[in-house]
Write a structure and sequence with these properties.
Blueprint lengths: L4 H11 L8 E2 L2 H7 L2 E6 L9 H9 L4 H6 L1 E4 L3 H12 L4 E6 L4 H9 L3 E5 L6 H12 L2 E2 L6 H7 L1 H9 L5 E5 L4 H13 L4 E7 L4 H8 L24 H8 L2 E5 L1 H14 L10 H7 L9 E6 L14 E2 L2 E2 L5
Length: 327
């Protein structure tokens, strides 16, 4: 099933009122450092702390009464998990989420807080997709994949649709890439509202399967990449997202974990924006001059803000409440 720009436009109408219209923020220091006009689309301020609520809500709102009564199942390291939990709860539906044992504690805690039942698996020895399909088959749960589904792609693209309505005449849009859902959706949105804007995907160097796929035009894989960008540890682009990336994305870039860490800390310190490593991928490429575009108007999608503080030597809780949990 193909996905079109019209699907993104329809998704925006479908999810209106259930998601936050996040701001597009500026920084004179960033503009000066990068030699460009930079506009941050702050999906780290989205409900659930990430853009994922858009696709999850677009999917859940298209389920029928019988499907909602049975419930939904998803597999995710965290942000999609929270999004599906929120969307299902809003629809009065049960949510079962398959999460890896090493998922950030803040994301596990938040997913439970949103009312989901969590099934833990071992990333090294078990296949999360197989577990999700089995649970779907055994219990009649509707499977909501994290990126490789037309409704997910269309929903995620509404983030860029908002940005193009907030900021005119962007020359580039830098978007984090894991499985390609948000990248595909943003590229589709550009075809509708900003055809002159070049959409560029950014992924961690250790998990560069999408970049290699883009360059070779043959689908490539990577298994359990070792990167701090936990949301980009996907093995490959999907059957839905791969052709969309090939058709609509202008280029792909990669950044090292060291570059990603530096860019993330800059956002924390200078802009007071709590952004998780995956969410900072697009800015890391700009921050380290992977894109040479002096004087350009550049959008940067900050995809999430659910930071695993413990991984950076900081307290993970304040009393009984997990930090990084966005209501």
């Amino acid at each position: 099933m193909d996905v079109t720009a019209q699907d993104v436009i329809d998704a925006a109408a479908r999810i209106r009122g259930a998601v936050t219209e996040t701001p597009a923020l500026r920084s004179t220091q960033v503009d000066r450092r990068c030699g460009a006009e930079v506009f941050f689309k702050c999906e780290n301020l989205q409900r659930g702390g990430a853009f994922k609520l858009r696709g999850a809500t677009n999917t859940v709102r298209q389920l029928n009464a019988e499907q909602l009564a049975r419930g939904v199942v998803a597999f995710s390291s965290g942000n999609h998990a929270q999004a599906v939990a929120i969307a299902a709860a809003a629809a009065g539906s049960r949510a079962v989420i398959v999460m890896p044992r090493d998922a950030p504690a803040v994301k596990l805690a938040a997913t439970r807080d949103y009312g989901a039942e969590i099934i833990i698996y071992d990333r090294a020895s078990e296949d999360r997709e197989a577990i999700g399909r089995r649970l779907s088959d055994e219990h009649g749960l509707f499977l909501i994949p994290p990126y490789d589904h037309p409704h997910i792609v269309a929903g995620q693209g509404t983030a860029a649709l908002e940005l193009f309505r907030q900021v005119a005449d962007l020359d580039y849009l830098l978007v984090p890439c894991g499985g390609g859902g948000i990248l595909s959706g943003c590229a589709l949105a550009a075809t509708a509202l900003a055809p002159n804007c070049k959409v560029i995907g950014v992924e961690p160097a250790a998990g560069d399967d999408a970049t290699r796929s883009f360059k070779s035009r043959v689908l490539q894989r990577v298994e359990n990449p070792d990167t701090i960008a936990d949301g980009a540890r996907t093995p490959a682009l999907g059957q839905v997202t791969f052709p969309l990336v090939m058709r609509h994305v202008f280029d792909m870039l990669v950044v090292s974990d060291a570059e990603l860490y530096a860019a993330m800390l800059y956002l924390w310190q200078r802009m007071k924006l709590v952004v998780e490593p995956t969410g900072a991928l697009g800015f890391a490429a700009l921050f380290h001059a992977k894109l040479h575009a002096p004087g350009a108007r550049i959008g940067v999608l900050l995809s999430g803000g659910n930071v695993d503080f413990a991984a950076f030597g900081l307290p993970a809780t304040w009393g009984d409440a997990p930090l990084g949990h966005s209501a």
